[in-house]
Amino acid sequence: MLTLAIDTSTKTASIALLEDDVVLSEVFINLNLHHSVTLLPAMENLTRVAGITPDRIDLLACTTGPGSFTGLRIGISTVKGLALATGRPVVGVSTLDALALNLVPSSMTICPMLDAGKKQVWTAIYRIGRKGIPEKTGKELVTDVEKFLRDLDREEEIIFVGDGAIKYSSLIGEILPERSFLATGHHQFIRAAAVGILGRRKFNDGDILDFITFTPLYLRPSVVYSGSGSTCDSDIRP
């Protein structure tokens, strides 16, 4: 099965082409440019180098949130357009699930954190399941970072990953001085390859989206400025 996977949920963007779980090609973009500028050219180059035309792709996978409001809309709109043009099925993957997969096969509890602004993070707690894939132990949430950290189990070792973990690394070390660890640099970014791997599993489980009606999972509403009626990203990302 050929899967085209996309992530545009944060400041970075990533596109990958996989055959089953084997990554054929992958592009990672960390240039602080708007995703609307980089995504389609990167996708065109990716498929051209691989010698694969869109009609040969079997499955489309994308992150559905949480993350940047604008970034998610760009990625999801692109995938919807591809689905409409090719008739291929679409699966959605949690941004936090994809980030947690970077730390397999860690024996520690995994805590992905994405910066949500306003001293908040999008986060969840994961442990490695029987199939070797991180599984959530509770719900995804957007929360005050200090309160979240103080409520964590002080007896377990936790590895933190993501731009929120980097931003609040000092606070994490202060509150959990002996039980907290920070993932290494190359693990900190969401990879489309992880989105593709998780997406194929969701497809095999029959978890397929209606590409016409599905929407991003924001976990909190956009900010609407009074007087203008316009909506903007509260996290101020591409």
Blueprint (SSEs and pairs):
Elements: E1 2-7, E2 13-19, E3 22-29, H1 35-50, E4 59-65, H2 69-86, E5 90-94, H3 95-101, E6 109-117, E7 120-123, E8 126-128, E9 134-136, E10 141-144, H4 145-150, E11 158-161, H5 163-167, H6 169-175, E12 180-182, H7 192-204, E13 223-224, E14 231-232
Parallel strand pairs: 1-4, 4-5, 6-11, 11-12
Antiparallel strand pairs: 1-2, 2-3, 6-7, 7-10, 8-9, 13-14
What would you say this structure looks like, in words?
With 238 residues, the protein is an alpha/beta fold. It folds into two domains: 2-95 and 190-232, ATPase, nucleotide binding domain (Nucleotidyltransferase, domain 5, 2-Layer Sandwich), CATH 3.30.420.40; 104-187, Nucleotidyltransferase, domain 5, CATH 3.30.420. It contains seven helices and 14 strands. The strands form four sheets. It has a five-stranded mixed sheet, sandwiched between helices. Strands 10-7-6-11-12 form a five-stranded mixed sheet, with helices on both faces. The chain is globular and about 50 Å long.
Number of domains: 2
Tertiary shape: globular
CATH level 4 superfamily of the largest domain: ATPase, nucleotide binding domain
Distance between the termini: 31 Å
Instruction: Give the percentage of residues in beta strands.
Output: 25-35%
The third-level CATH topology of the largest domain is Nucleotidyltransferase, domain 5
CATH hierarchy: architecture of the largest domain: 2-Layer Sandwich
Number of strands: 14
Chain oligomer state: single chain
Helical stretch count? Answer: 7
What is the strand arrangement across the widest sheet?
Answer: 3-2-1-4-5
Alpha carbon gyration radius: 18 Å
In CATH's first tier, which class of the largest domain applies?
Alpha Beta
Largest sheet: 5 strands, mixed
Low-confidence stretches: 223-238
